[in-house]
Amino acid sequence: MIKEFPSFEATPEREPFWFLGGQARILLPGSATGNAVSLMEFSDPSGHAPPLHAHENEEELWFVLDGEVSFFVGNERHDLTPGQVAHGPRGVPHSYLVRSAEGARIAVVFSPARIEEWFRANGTPVAEAGDLPPAFDLAAVVASAEAFRLRVTGPPPAL
Prior knowledge:
By secondary structure, this protein is mainly beta. It has helices at 115-121, 138-145, and strands at 17-19, 22-28, 38-44, 52-55, 59-66, 69-73, 76-80, 85-88, 94-98, 104-111, 124-125, 150-154. A 7-stranded antiparallel β-sheet has the order 8-5-10-3-2-1-11, with helices on one face. A 3-stranded antiparallel β-sheet has the order 7-6-9, with no helix packed on it. Strands 4-12 form a two-stranded antiparallel sheet. A hairpin with a 2-residue loop joins strand 6 and strand 7 (76-80). It is globular and about 35 Å long. The N and C termini lie far apart (44 Å). The model has no long low-confidence stretch (mean pLDDT 88).
C-alpha cells in the first residue's frame, strides 16, 4: 500500500527554526505516519556538534545531503559525505560534528516519531533567512528532554 504524504512545499509546519545554533525543519511530522516515523532536516554551521546523547525511544537514521560530517555512535566514528548514511540505535550514545567549512545539511529519520515535537518546542522561529541564531539555554533544553526519554551523556564531540 502506498500512502501519499503532503508535498514538501513550504507550510507553516515546515518553516525552519533555530535549534542549538543551527536550523531545523520538520519535513514529515509523526502525525502524518501514525507516529511510525518522522523526517527532519538540519542545516548546521562548520564546527556544530550537539552534546553526546541517547534516545531511549527512537532509532535515528542520518543521511548527509551536503557537507562533511563525523558521526559518533557508541565508541565508533563514521566520517560521511553527501549520499552516505549512518544509524544511531536506540539507547546508544551518539552525536555528530560538522567538519566542512561551508556547513552541512542532514536529513534525519526518527522511528518511532514524536521527538520532532521536542525539537520544535525548543526552537526559535527564523525571522528571515539572514538572521543569526539566537542565544539558547542548554540547561532548559536538556531539562525538557526528560519527558521524551532523551538524555545527555557527555559533552559535544571534537576531532
